[in-house]
Amino acid sequence: MTDPAGGTPTPPPATPPPASPPPASPPASNWQQQAAPTAGGFQTAPVAAGPAPGVVYADTVTRIIAYIIDAILLTVLTYIVGLILVGLLTAVGGVLGLLIGFIIFAVIVLVGSAVYFVYTWMNMRASPGQRVLGLETVNAADGSTLTQPQAVRRWGWLYGIFALATVGQIVLTGSSLGLLSTLLSLATLGYAIYLVYTVTQSPKRQGYHDVQAGTVVVKRVA
Length: 222
Known about the structure:
By secondary structure, the protein is mainly α. Helices cover 55% and strands 6% of the residues. The protein has a domain at 58-206.
């Protein structure tokens, strides 16, 4: 094609370079951390997709039932042992034996719960109550078994506070500080409600105790 004015030919329009292909996505790992929107207020947050094939985040109701089973088992074990010791020490030492018995009882409640949860999370990946319902407590980052520091932190924020409250109630029972025992019971009830609330607000169903320990509760599905 020539210029109408008789000049040099007009060059054809330049062809745009081909678009570069989109960057390749990194290969998906076996344990993905997928985000999901968090609900506001008291509305339950939608559950995120499972972190791995055949694995889903455990629902709140199932987790509560598992916790109740564990609490019943622990109460039966610690109270049977504790009351037997208190009775024996009282029979032998009278009032002093009763006082010593209550102190030992409090130690059994606190230490017994720590051993119960820390041992089972580290060696069975689940507490007995969780195993009954097919749940596992694992590392939130990669699904591995909990380390000892993780297990201890999770016990402290989940059950340790309630165990300490139980110890306080044992000490306050029968004393002139009965009002403090009542306030302590209300405080632990409020904390329990808070833990349940934080679980419902997390797409991965991570409660406050899970966040502190870097853990998540999952269930394997077919």
